[in-house]
Design brief:
The chain has helices at 3-8, 26-30, 38-46, 99-107, 114-121, 126-139, 162-169; strands at residues 51-55, 60-64, 143-145, 158-160. By secondary structure, the chain is of the alpha+beta class.
Length: 172
């Protein structure tokens, strides 16, 4: 269970094979095709877009599963003609910002080290600050390290990215 769903969503899939038992042969386990089993029936109910192809000449049966197309909303700027002189534009989506990250972005001025940021936020617990504020802000792209190749440097400072500057300027 779940393997078909992972395959459809483009995720990793695992194929599980068992050793043949006693006098079993590959042909006796896999061939001949005798019709729809409950697995294919359930798969068709869950994903009706599966195409079943019976290739008797090649002694094959295929189940072709198409991955879903990502759904994007296209919004064209005003004044674009029907011929599409300009390419369609998709709106920029702002990721969800946690209250902790928003507080960090609001207090960050220029380049500040960890102690300065914790003091500005009124925090004392380094682990809480690191996980909930600093790493979350860096991972979401609001804040960047001044020495990214040495994340544990004692000289490390943090500054806003362009996206972080836009977020800081945005009305609360």
């Amino acid at each position: 269970p779940g393997g078909l769903q992972q395959l459809l969503m483009g995720g990793p899939t695992l194929l599980s094979l068992r050793p043949l038992q006693g006098s079993e042969t590959v042909e006796s386990v896999m061939l001949p095709y005798r019709g729809l089993g409950s697995g294919i029936h359930r798969a068709l109910q869950a994903w009706p877009q599966i195409a079943l192809q019976d290739h008797r000449s090649g002694n094959e049966f295929r189940a072709v599963v198409a991955r879903p197309q990502p759904q994007t909303q296209v919004i064209a700027p005003a004044g674009i003609g029907v011929e599409g002189a300009n390419p369609p534009v998709t709106p920029e989506v702002t990721p969800e910002v946690t209250p902790e990250v928003m507080r960090l972005v609001q207090v960050l001025q220029g380049a500040m080290n960890r102690q300065e940021l914790m003091q500005a936020l009124g925090l004392k617990d380094e682990k809480h600050f690191r996980q909930q504020y600093q790493q979350a802000a860096v991972a979401q792209g609001w804040v960047e390290m001044t020495i990214p190749e040495k994340p544990r440097s004692r000289l490390q400072r943090y500054r806003l990215t362009e996206a972080g500057q836009r977020l800081q300027a945005r009305p609360v």
